[in-house]
Design goal:
Strands 1, 2, 3, 4, 5 and 6 form a six-stranded antiparallel beta sheet that branches. The protein is elongated. By secondary structure, the protein is α+β, with helices and mostly antiparallel strands. It has one domain. Strand 5 and strand 6 form a beta hairpin. The chain starts with a helix and ends with a strand. The chain has three helices and six strands; from the N terminus they run αββαββαββ. Helix content is about 25%, strand content about 45%.
Length: about 140
């Protein structure tokens, strides 16, 4: 019975050490607010039509900048079509460590909610690397 108590104690200590290590590793990033000044979205929208027997009758593919595809506004609201693509979000932010203004980019794909929801002028939360203020990531 004493061996199981030692094993359980060791497991608890191990979990605590891993938790502390994860928190300490997360301190390499500082939170900041960023303002979106431009989004480059490229889309591939697949529109399929089906017959009464639920078999696909036809497929139409739209590939271009999302804003130039007529279907984009409808797809953005309803998400009723298969969409793949990338969105490069260009940001302005202030480096928390130095107070200097900086620009950077974040990338999202068609599986991310941000791909559909973000627009120029929005403010988002980011994390800025303490060792390299040009490195950012989504908060």
């Amino acid at each position: 019975m004493s061996y199981s108590l030692y094993g359980a104690s060791a497991a608890v200590v191990l979990v605590l050490v891993i938790g502390v290590a994860n928190v300490a590793g997360g301190s390499n990033w500082a939170p900041a607010k960023a303002s979106i000044y431009l989004i480059d979205r490229n889309c591939r929208i697949i529109e399929s039509t089906y017959g009464s027997d639920y078999k696909r009758k036809s497929t139409r593919v739209y590939t271009d900048s999302c804003s130039s595809i007529d279907q984009w506004q409808k797809v953005r609201k309803k998400r009723d079509k298969d969409v793949s693509g990338t969105a490069v979000v260009h940001l302005n932010y202030t480096v928390p460590q130095t107070g200097q203004s900086q620009t950077g980019d974040l990338k999202f794909d068609g599986h991310d909610d941000e791909f559909y929801q973000l627009k120029a002028g929005d403010e988002i939360d980011i994390l800025v690397s303490k060792s390299n203020p040009r490195k950012i990531r989504k908060a």
